[in-house]
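Re: folding output
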Amino acid sequence: MKNIYLVLFIIGLISCNSNTKKSNSPRKTYPDIQIVGAMKNVMWNGQLEGVIKLDTIKNKKGLYGLGPVSFLSGELLINDGKTYISKVLSDSTMSVEKNNNISAPFFVYGNVNEWLVNKLPKNIHTIKDLEFFIDQKTKEAQKPFAFKLIGKITNAQIHIQNLPKGTKVSSPKQAHQGQTNYNLYNEDVEIIGFFSYEHKGVFTHHDSLIHLHLITKDEQKMGHLDRVVFSDMKLYLPKS
């Protein structure tokens, strides 16, 4: 009889220890991210044609996404279900319109409806600072994931792809022909980003964990974010 009690006691201890370990190490799970095509296929293999039409993405609730326009003729951003297309007009002007009847040669997107809001610390000024900060904040998080920032920038540089029609591409240098840069100063903006360890050359550049597109509050300027000095920003991370 004593042996039976001893066995039951040991089983109970094992069960308690197992439950304690589970409860002390919860793992966040973020909404699934969809990835179509790859940046490296565009840059190195000249696959410029569209592999996804944005109007085929059915669930628009809390939808975020980014990528270039097919044939590298502009930039795309989905911000909370609204699709924006930016194109070069001149070296100092651009057009930005809402229209989801457009395709992309690579695109990353996902739905987020609940956010954790963080005040971006004053010592976070640049994209590299931001990348490191997000990495530290999300060590236990499932990746990849979407995030966003809302607030004011001191200055920034964005670009829009503007590849001349008929151009053949077999290297990043060729792919960036016609790319036009725009400088912004003291603007209220939203920045949509995607973070991943495993998608360099797919939807982030080879030297970065994040891909960012910026749109001004008045929706008159939008493009891929290359450089930024943050001023007063809030960082929104997906809620598990």
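--- second protein (sequence, then structure) ---
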Amino acid sequence: MADFDSRDDFLPARCPGPGWEDILAADDIAPPDFVAQDQYRYLGSEPIDAKRYYDPEFFALEKERMWPRVWQFAAREEDLPEPGDYVTYENAGRSYLIVRQADGEVKAFHNVCLHRGRKLATDNGNADQFLCPFHGFSWNPDGSLRNIPCRWDFGHLSDEKMQLPEASVGRWQGYIFVRESDEGPSLEEFLSPLPEYFKRWKHEECVTVAWVGKVVKANWKITMEAFMESYHAYVTHPQLMPFTGDANAAYHVLSDHVNVNYTPFGVVSPHIEDKKLSEQWIIEEFGKYNGRSADNYDGEDDAGAVEVPEGRTARQALGEAMRATSQKMFGGDYSQISECELLDALVYNVFPNFAPWGGFMPNIVYRWRPWPDQDHCLMEVRVIARVPEGEPRPKGVPMHMLGEDEDWSDAPELGVLGGVVDQDMSNMELTHEGLKVSKNQRVELGDYQEVRIRHLHQTLDKYLAD
């Protein structure tokens, strides 16, 4: 991929007052250097063409030139822990069988019978063979041909010719990726610098404890972009403002395929003008509405019950409480873990559609897929949590697919996070409809707070141009 077209000498305006680095400097324990280092890049100020979100021809180009060439997050290791376990993964006109092999490896096969083209599976499960329900052709879990009924009529087909076609597979930190193309960067190269960053957070020691999906009547990019900036929070999520530094957030462009938004919690939003609010009030509001952490306390460690000693900040008090709670829940030594890694939204995006949160708390993981066209997408919210020391690794929970008339808040496993996502969803369909009827057909972006959206489109353009 080509280098970024950036102007290193251009610094866009930032929110007046303390910034991300200032907030971190006031904490008890400093985070890793890469979190505090400013890696913003100016990527221009040109508008985005609205047709990119709804035009069938543009969507066809994405399917032809981009999706087959990128690593796609397809499953977690705990989704298929035993030999013969399989997961069906579908996206952008392709269907794959992700299968655990007898030796523990994972293979991905195109999920299509090589006789008349029926999908071999439409579910997840365990199988000692993949039997086509149409005529009974079958394959072994390693993709080799098992049986052809009336084999006498297919003398022209060899076992080698009938091996299921494979896709490339990559595995990292408990995540399993597939790529249709055999060519391109390795998974480690594609994810860089995340393999270095996430060593500290060890997602491979986590399992899926909640997983909810819903079809959204909007383009996959529209829906994803709503989770790439904190700029919308003060209007869309007003209940979060007492403890969310939305305009204090940092936006970094890390590589062709990776960017990040760091949003601090435990501080009052710059949009709240009353500067005499107490640190204790911040904690009380945090305990009520924080979608990542509010449901992860119990008993005496409840976030709303944390007392702020005189001369201390809400972030410092919450950091102390969350170190103690994390150590009690998961084991290990959390005494030197920074407030940032226990409190803040460290939301990384891997092009094109994968967003794992960093840090040590139960982590949110987002994925968005066209479902099945440019006008709809499947949005998924996973929560992964660390397996407590000494306990066996459980199988992950299956996806809870919400119906059209159900809200995210109807999924009790998401806790207060479900209500936050519902607020986001109130914008999605109307944004998609609005772009279709827009007179000027332009999307205007902020230079700083929406740079990740611009980065997404510039990277997409590089694939479409090749």
